[in-house]
Predict the structure.
Amino acid sequence: MKPSGKRAYLLLATLILAGPTAAFDLDSDAPIRVSADSARLDDAEGIAVYNGDVELMQGNTQLNAERLVLYRDQQGLSRVEASGEPARYRQPAREGEAMTDARARNITWSAADNQLTFERQAIIEQGNNVFRGDVIHYDTVSRVVTAEGGTPSEESSGRVEMVIQPRGAGNPTDE
């Protein structure tokens, strides 16, 4: 790998790894709180469906959507599916890192797969760095990010795009 390619990969890893890794921390003592215009809980099936201006909070991590479905099993929360125009995931900055702000029409978190998936017009921003794709997968255990382009449209080139700011461009990750 060329030095510039290696640097781009490391910056991409910093961009993605710094944010979604703590998506919904099941080991956290912080409760997950959900508010919405309406909700339906099927305790026997372990499914809760929230509709209308949904806000999920765990600590300072926030997920906003038009619709949110939570799945529970014997171990607790197993899957989160959010959709909106767009759904939005925000995780506050940690020491030396910028806030993570991710948007997509569909955001899914799976405990079994240890994966966050952002689908349809996915954008992840951290500081001035930006990563776009039609589908972005993040494996929270192996820390591998994969992205796929989509069909070109008026809104998108259909290609995976990344904007990485040079060092010293005011990014908190540069310090």
